[in-house]
Known about the structure:
Elements: E1 4-11, E2 18-25, E3 31-38, E4 45-47, E5 52-55, E6 58-61
Antiparallel strand pairs: 1-2, 2-3, 4-5, 5-6
Amino acid sequence: MDYSLDFYAFDAGAMGSFGIRGELDGPFGFKKQVYYERHAEKANIQWLTNEIVVINGHEINLKNEESFGYKINTR
């Protein structure tokens, strides 16, 4: 399976933070957020395989639905 990633810069202004986020393009227009890094200005991307990507030194396996920077609240 081939994967496609879109990256966006964000800036919350003087009182907020800036950074980048990455979204995985899925079927039927579905997008999944897979990368979030505050205080980053660029996304340096290296594809190791069709399923594994390294973004700013963080390895993500897209087939295993991994992500970086998003916290999951657990109880």
